[in-house]
Amino acid sequence: MYTAHRAVTEAHGLFCGIKEKNSMSWSVMVGGFAKNGDCVDCFRTFREYIRSADHPDNYTLPLVIRVCRDTTDLQMGRLIHQIVHKFGLHSDPFVAAALVDMYAKCKVIDDAKTMFDTMLERDLVTWTVMIGAQTECGSANEALLLFDRMQEEGIVPDSVAMVNVVNACAKLGAMHKARLVHDYISGKKFWLTVVLGTAMIDMYAKCGCVESAREIFDRMGIKNVVTWSAMIAAYGYHGRGREALDYFSMMLMTGMVPNSITFVSILYACSHSGMVEDGLKLFSLMQEEYGVRPNVKHFTCVVDLLGRAGRLDEASSLIKNMAIEKDEGLWGALLGACRIYGHVELAEEAARSLLELQPENAGHHYILLANIYARAGKWKDVARIRELMTRQRLKKVPGWTCIEVDNKIHQFTIGDHSHPQLKEIYEKLKCLCNKLELAGYVPDTNYVLHDVDEECKRGILYTHSEKLAITFGLSATPEGSPIRITKNLRVCGDCHTFIKYVSLVANRLVIVRDANRFHHFKDGACSCGDYW
DNA sequence: ATAGGGTTAG
After folding, report:
1. Residue A267 CB contacts under 8 Å (≥ 6 apart), including other chains
2. Which partner for A205 in A50, A86, A213, A490 could form a disulfide, CB atoms 3.0-4.6 Å apart?
3. Buried/exposed code over A433-470 (b: 16+ C-beta within 10 A; e: otherwise)
4. From the CA of A263, how many Å to the C1' of B4?
């Protein structure tokens, strides 16, 4: 009773008074601490339990494993896995599912997979956890294959399982697959819970179709703050700031209280649509009316907002005066703005602060800085940066682009020649470029940082994965149908121009999902207003 | 009076 009311101190008092504790009393106490978020007390009680009992039971173990998951304490997780082994409980489906989930959330997919593969009996939850694990660790494609395998083995999914499948589609941005999954959900008459509905909104939005996302939204009887935030975010990253603001007002009118994430979504929406004043107003409203303390993400949105509008000094002083810890994304936003406006000095300052944080994708930031130097014609500095990168063995993350054709996903990666039609595609791309150039396209070799001649630079631009994917898409899909591509990095300026001309010359709608947002290309223009 | 899986940003 006490643990149910989060009165864990009282519960512990009573617990200490019990002379002969059985496994049930231990598990209630451990679970009580776990529910309350007291991970130190939870682990301590668990240790006492192990010491006093002959062996731990399979009720208590999942509880502590879950705490390891929530705190991503892999070390503790592995220790508990050893205990599980020692007592031969690794084939218990409850314990095993908890372990798989813990490994996945700690991003060690190999251990999750080994655990899953060696299990004797897998039930719905175990499969669901593993499907989620693959998505979590960046193999959404694998997740969808697992879902097929699960069905082959006769396991019938429920709505929680479907949330994980829907998430995999969202991560992939695979529209055909999304439609198939949607049909499946409708056909099997799953109860459209708030969570499943919200996940589907997110899926459609991330597959590039806000309209379908909205249809789901409209049909949902019950919506929570997450549902509204997902819809607002969707309009935001599709560059439809006006509608994001409309939905935000509607949300307030229904009496729904926005949270910290809602404000990140709406601020982000403002920045992507260049609605500076609206964004700044919301930033103060958030603090004054809703008592939401701005975190580093909110500040990043505002820096982005100011930076894109060219108000670099305000952005930079906002960063200087803020009282919370600065992170990679924050400085990255400032650096990005410097790139747009060619502000070399501020870029150097941002890059210096950024690199002090020893970021994981240092290579990316160096490249951004090198881009800024290149634009300013400072080739010596470009060379210096490249040398630094070589010395530190920093590599550029290889760019890839995916396109879904006939329910199959084709991936194009720089330097990867595995696509069977690649030679043909290169020929077609050359031919396409000729047409585009006749229409006015001029390749922008400023985006090539290698110190080679103009002709070589043009050659390098040819290999950009989005160009290959689009060329392939043009011939592999019916005339007039939209082309949807997903890529892992941001579109380069030259490819952005290239795609504009494709939409004009081939008369196609091209929808690009990049690392940050969506671009809808139509009749030679892009929805981002060349601002990304 | 005890156990494992789910949604929004970046």
Report:
1. A279, A282, A283, A298, A301, A302, A305
2. A213
3. beebeeeebebbbebbbeeeeeeebeebbeebbbbbbb
4. 33
Q: Which of A480, A532, A512 is nearest to A401 (CA)?
A: A512
> Is A190 within 7 A of strand B by CB distance?
no
Sign of the Cα torsion A79, A84, A87, A90 reads negative
User: pLDDT (tens digit, 9 = 90+) per residue, A384-430?
Assistant: 988 888 888 877 778 889 999 988 889 898 877 888 898 999 999 99
In angstroms, the CA A231 to CA A214 distance is 7
Max CA pair span of chain A: 89
A62 touches strand B (CB under 7 A): yes
Is strand B in 7 Å reach of the CB of A251?
no
CA distance A103 to A73: 10
Residues in CB range of A221: below 8 A, 6 or more apart: none
Q: What is the pLDDT of residues A207-242, one digit of tens each?
A: 999 999 999 999 999 999 999 999 999 999 999 999
Break chain A into its structural domains and give their ranges.
Answer: 1-121, 400-526
**Statement: the CB of A133 is under 7 Å from strand B:** no
Query: Where do we find the tokens 């990253």?
Result: A237
Other beta carbons within 10 Å of A74: 17
Residue A53's alpha-carbon distances to A27, A39, A57, A91, A501, in angstroms, are: 12, 21, 9, 21, 72
Instruction: Verify if strand B has an atom below 7 Å from the CB of A220.
Output: no
Residue reference for tokens 């994001």: A244
DSSP label at residue A256: P
Measure, in angstroms, how far nucleotide B6 C1' is from residue A498 CA. Answer: 40
